[in-house]
Amino acid sequence: MYGIAGGADGRFEIQVSSGEIRLSGSLDRETKDFYQLNVTATDRGSPSKQNSLIVNITVLDVNDVVPSFGIPSTDAVTFTVPEEQSVPQTIGRVNASDADLGENSRLTYLIANASVPFNITSDGVVQSSGLLDRESISRYRFVVYASDAGFPSLTGSTVVAVQLTDINDWSPEFSQPIYQTFTLEKAPIGTVLAIVAATDKDIGANANLTYYLQGNGSEYLSVDPLTGFVSIKRTITINELLSKGLISRNSSSGNETVYSPLVLQLLAFDNPVDTSKKLNGTAQLWITLTQVSDSLPTFTAASYSFSVNENSPAGTPVGSVSASVVGTSIVVKYKLDTTNSLFQIDELTGNITVQMGAALDKENTSLSSQLSLTVLAFTDTVPSRQSYGAVRITLTDVNDNQPVFSQASGYSFVVAEELTEPVRIGAVSATDADSGNNALISYSIVGGNTAGVFALNSTTGELTAVSRIDREAVAVYLLQIAAIDNGSPTRLSSTVSATVSLTDVNDNAPVLSIGSALDLNVTEGYGPGYLAAVVTATDADLGLNGSVNFDLIQTDVPPMFYITSNGTGSVLLKTLGTLNYALRTSYQLTIIAYDLGNPVQSSNATIEVSVIKFDTNRPRFTSEFFNTSIADNLPPNTPIFDLPAGPRPFNYTIIDGDSNGAFSITNQGRISITKVLAPPLPRVYTLKISATDELNNTASTILQVWLTSPTTAVFNTTDVTLSWNEDHGSGRELVYDFATVDELLGRTVQYVIQTCSPIGCESLFSIDPATGQFYVMSSLDRETVSKYSFVIRANLPGSSGGSSGRRRRQAIAPPTTDTSSVTLTVTDVNDNPPVFNVPSPFRVGILINSPVDTLVYTPSATDRDSTSVLTYSLSNLTDQFYINLNSAELRTRATFSSSASTPIVGVEVTDGKFNASMVIVVTLLTSTNSLVLTAGITPDVFNRYESLIKTNLSALLGVDFRVAKVTSAVSDSGDSAKVDPTKTDAYIYAYNPTTGTLIEQAELRRIIEAKRAEIAAFFALFGAKSYDGVRTPVLTSGGGVTSTSTGLTAAEIALIVLACLIVVAAIIAIIVLLCWLSKRIKRRWRQLEADEAASAAAAGGGSRLYGSLAPEVLQLQRKKQTATDGGRVNGGATTGELEIAAEAAPAPLAAMELVSNPTYQRNPSRRYPPSQFGSASAVAAAAAAANGAENFNDDSPRRSTAFSDNVSGTSLSRIMFVPAAYNSLSVSIGLNAEEATTDEDGNPIIVVNNADSTDHEDAWLAAATNRPGSGPASDDPPADEVEEQSSPTESVEPLVNQQ
Question: Which residues fall in a compositionally biased region of kind Polar residues (predicted)?
Answer without folding.
Answer: 1285-1299
